[in-house]
Amino acid sequence: xxxxxxxxxxxxxxxxxxxxxxxxxxxxxxxxxxxxxxxxxxxxxxxxxxxxxxxxxxxxxxxxxxxxxxxxxxxxxxxxxxxxxxxxxxxxxxxxxxxxxxxxxxxxxxxxxxxxxxxxxxxxxxxxxxxxxxxxxxxxxxxxxxxxxxxxxxxxxxxxxxxxxxxxxxxxxxxxxxxxxxxxxxxxxxxxxxxxxxxxxxxxxxxxxxxxxxxxxxxxxxxxxxxxxxxxxxxxxxxxxxxxxxxxxxxxxxxxxxxxxxxxxxxxxxxxxxxxxxxxxxxxxxxxxxxxxxxxxxxxxxxxxxxxxxxxxxxxxxxxxxxxxxxxxxxxxxxxxxxxxxxxxxxxxxxxxxxxxxxxxxxxxxxxxxxxxxxxxxxxxxxxxxxx
Length: 388
Description:
9-stranded mixed beta sheet; globular
């Protein structure tokens, strides 16, 4: 006769994990699942499959939030009719949602028989939550096979929401230990933002369709054809813009990748300063990426409008065997041989650091094709990638 304890254990194993855990997401709340990247800890022999997201209540009919959105437009010196523009309402609304603290939702990683469930921790004050699967390679085989069938990506989904059963979806990219990794800024790198002009920046952020920088967009599309190369976006843009930025990537056929945006809370002194400052937030994120993939050759791409040259130069000096190439889009008109770049790229080989105008970037796809061919070679490439 089967013991009651064994019977209960068998029922728990057979039952769907989401039924055991339960979701606390209500019918008037939303979940945004962020793009993440899975990585293999070769020393421990364990795959890390992270999930991350944001739980909030939109409160679209809130009178209080309507007033706040009007005041927000006024504080930012946006045109008086901004509140009536759908694009402003859609983007600004994310800054006035009711972030849900202490919420929990199971997240399914993969589909079919390969699927696994993650139980993230409870959401924090900003509504954000994280969780992680830890799998030995044999246990991860089903998910890795699914990624191979889907261009390196695994779908993720929340448990159906209480009340209406809506499911929120995302994806995890599987990045093996070797290959290339392009770490890219967003504002004024792949998306024209005019960060140095406060009013232009705010209008491009809240009132205008996002516009790609043509040559870099073309280069990134080319890189996406190489399945050994991956992209991670590290930006000072506030995380509240994650959905319009993701839509921008899709609209312009730019490759998706793990996205690291800057947390924003209203205690920050200035929205403009939030966008403009990156010296404190970018380096630890990039360092963590290099630590996860120590055998990938890294290309750092940014622009001259903020601190990308200084940040990238410091990181390249600390990781000379990993950082293969630095490319800066010139938006300031400074002399590439001037004091700023001589200091930023001090002690680095000249061929590894290029500052290019938009005219120079017309050949970006050719340059990156050659760099990809040479990424495992230590000898300097020919002058055709030096911007001569």
